[in-house]
Amino acid sequence: MKFEDFLYRAPYQFGGKTVDRVTMLNVEVTVRTREGKRQKGFGSMSMGNVWAYPGKPYDVTLGEMRTLAAAIKTVYEGHREYGHPIDLGVQVEPACMKAALQMPKLAVLVTLSPFDAAVHDAYGKLLGRSIYQCYGPDCLPRDLSAYLGADFKGQRLHEAILLKPKPQVSLYHSVGAGDAIEAADLKTRLNDGLPETLPDWIAYNGLTHLKIKLNGSNLAADVERVVRIDRVAGNKTYCLDFNENCPNIAYFLDFLRQIKERAPKLFDKVQYVEQPTRRDLKADRANVMHEAAKLRPVVIDESLVDLETLLLARDMGYTGVALKACKGQTQAMLMAAAAKKYQMFTCVQDLTCPGAALIHSVGLAAHVPGVTGIEANARQYVPVANRPWEAKFPGIFKVTDGAMRTASLRGPGLGAV
Q1: What is the mean pLDDT of residues 390-406?
Q2: How far apart are CA 8 and CA 378, in angstroms?
Q3: Are residues 90 and 180 in the same domain?
Q4: 84 falls in which pLDDT band (50, 70, 90)?
Q5: Which stretches of 103-180 are assigned E, i.e. beta strand?
């Protein structure tokens, strides 16, 4: 287990917060079969404490997550059961949650995720296959009812995913709340050889998809910002993300209606909207999304920590789920299966994932049916962390036509190393 710290080339603003650094947790595990064969696996993830553990100072939440990582390491070292990575992931999660005491479940999942990823990676390498080819009944004998309840009796995990990756997935470029849209927005130039305005990024990566971060505190400003970005960007596909900052459903509905009235062609290009109101759905039952979801798919992200929250969100009118590698490969696979059963819109999102974490995330997007794009913003904010990976995985780290190529992900395990 090893931590790496990186400073951002420029601050990233989202949900009323600003982030200028990232701590990566890199984990290597060794698994052993009943026959004594051993295999190493690797997992990596951004700690993302500002997003996963809000409400306390940065150093406090990062410190608690680092302490939890050491406790999770002890849980894994003491686990002696044999089983498929899905079984092992489900088995160890309660002990990891118990070790976290009062930490939010989302922060626990983020801290746990590189350990879980490393086990999946090792299992695939043991069999010499992509891990996505290890979710069928030859490897995973139990059906989904063992993990998701009786409603899933007779359904199999491999039926909910693709055994081979899609050849490419579109890259969603993040337009942070503080990012320069045009040159006039620049207060100072970085002059580091990378783009600094939205038109420059569009040309640099051949962008076709944009994820727009919105603050949710000023309706007129939010509407104007989206309209302005569309005017500058031209014909693009959009995801809009409030990071739970809309004060209520009325604000969100007003936003959608104003966008539709002011720019109907722009409105038609919005693929989905992410987590408009608070993540604690049980405490926020009045902000239902039924009416909004008639206009555009509304996706839970921060709220999604287990099947219970997925079902609650569905009952409250949410029509989509955001899968993330940072919540664990085990959970991502089970939630992908649940989303398919309940016919929910599915997307894959980022946590400023560089290097192996991005490779893991792209692999997830490439193997889940219906996912056509993936956010990948480490290339914007912390490109230094990507550089060791660029030569080996150019299809992922060197984008020129708005799409990431997956040909290099056909190796065993998660495909990163």
Answers
A1: 96
A2: 9
A3: no
A4: very high
A5: 168-175
Q: pTM of this prediction?
A: 0.97
Shortest CA distance to 140 belongs to which of 160, 111, 110? 160
Q: Do residue 132 and residue 176 come from a single domain? A: no
For 167-205, how does the pLDDT look when each residue is reduced to its tens digit (9 = 90+)? 999 999 999 999 999 999 998 999 999 999 999 999 999
- Which of 152, 168, 202 is at the close of a domain? 152
Cα 252 to Cα 14, 190, 219, 242, 266: the distances in Å are: 17, 35, 9, 9, 17
33 and 87 in a single domain? The answer is yes
Parallel, antiparallel, or unpaired for β 168-175 and 298-300? unpaired
| pLDDT tens, position by position, 290-342 | 999 999 999 999 999 999 999 999 999 999 999 999 999 999 999 999 999 99
Does residue 116 sit in the same domain as residue 215?
no
**Rg, Å, the chain Cα set:** 20
The reply to whether 29 falls in a domain is: yes
Last residue of one domain, picked from the residues 97, 118, 152: 152
Q: What is the structure's pLDDT at 416?
A: 82
DSSP for 218-250 reads -HHHHHHHHHHHHHHH-S-EEEEE-TT--SSHH
Whether 410 has a pLDDT exceeding 90, the answer reads no
Same domain, 367 and 286: yes
pLDDT, tens digit (0-9, with 9 covering 90-100), for 117-149: 999 999 999 999 999 999 999 999 999 999 999
Does residue 416 fall inside a structural domain?
no
Does 133 reside within a domain? Answer: yes
For 23, how many CA atoms within 13 A lie in the half-sphere containing its CB? 20
- Total tally of structural domains belonging to the chain: 2
Statement to judge: residues 170 and 281 lie in one domain: yes
Domain range for 16: 2-152
Regarding whether 249 and 220 lie in a shared domain, the answer is: yes
**Sequence-distant (≥ 6) Cβ neighbours of residue 300 within 8 angstroms:** 275, 281, 309, 310, 313, 318, 320, 321, 322
3-state secondary structure of 139: coil
| Residue 210 main-chain phi, psi, to 5 deg | -130, 140
Residues 148 and 173 in one domain: no
- Check: CB of residue 62 under 8 Å from CB of residue 47: yes
Tell whether the model's pLDDT for residue 411 goes beyond 90.
Answer: no
Quote the pLDDT of residue 409: 86
